Amino acid sequence: MKHLIVTLLLLITFQTAQAQLFKKEKITYDANQGRGTTDYKLLRWGYFLGINSYDFNFDYNEDLPDIQVIRSPGFSVGLIGNLRVNSFLDLRFEPGLFITTRELYYKQQYFQGVAFKASDLIREVKSTYIHLPFLLKVSTKRINNFKPFIVGGFSTALNLSSNENNPDDNSKGQFRTTKSPLFYELGFGIDFYFYNFKFTPSIRGLFGISDELVRDNDPNSPWTSNITNMKTRGVFINFTFQ
């Protein structure tokens, strides 16, 4: 269903593009008709829909086989607040809801000398993030009805599925992560100008700064004792409407 929604949005947008985007005429703001680009407004608002793919990057104490991370495509939706600095710089705040699932697969070497079941080798990590990025958008000069840009900044999130304060740990099947991880983000995209709105596809990489693992109560836990750091990394594909 998530992919169908995004596909339909793209089809509708690009059908409209045939009539507007690829005309030689540069679309500008028409105050009388109240339509066209809003680039010269100090504050602009919008929303985005997207697909995300989250991963984990691990650092280890001992040289054991890597923990395998199986990723599942997730869904993203949110709002945009844009503050214009000048023709080439914008400050952006993009609060959103990001839903994703990752599965961790452990090798048997992690359980040497410990009795285990097949289910102990797998941990499901469900994450529901209230994602809060503060970004700087650096654009090129507008080319007719196109305007490429790069974007970067820092973000934090409230993980509603973290289980950070849950007294149960992996010994009872609960894999725990921190509530408020920190990240930095880098990406690029293209603004496409239409008569009634601006459409922006973009791709962005997410890189964790803080360790997100909540260790088990047992310091020799096979699930957490060999992990020095566990940091999120991810890729976002967003479709923005302003």
What's the short version?
By secondary structure, the chain is mainly beta. The chain contains 1 helix and 9 strands, in the order αβββββββββ.
What percent of residues adopt helix (DSSP H or I)? Answer: under 10%
Shape: elongated
Radius of gyration: 22 Å
Query: Treating each run of at least 4 consecutive H or I residues as one helix, how many helices?
Result: 1
The proportion of residues in beta strands is over 45%
Report on the biggest sheet: 9 strands, antiparallel
Q: SS-based structural class?
A: mainly beta
Structure description:
With 242 residues, the protein is mostly beta strands. The protein has one domain. The protein is built from 1 helix and 9 strands. Strands 1, 2, 3, 4, 5, 6, 7, 8 and 9 form a 9-stranded antiparallel sheet that branches. Strand 2 and strand 3 form a beta hairpin. It starts with a helix and ends with a strand.
Please describe the topology of this protein.
Layout (H helix, E strand, L loop, with lengths): L1 H19 L22 E18 L7 E17 L4 E5 L2 E10 L16 E18 L6 E14 L22 E12 L4 E11 L18 E15 L1
Antiparallel strand pairs: 1-2, 1-9, 2-3, 2-4, 3-5, 4-5, 5-6, 6-7, 7-8, 8-9
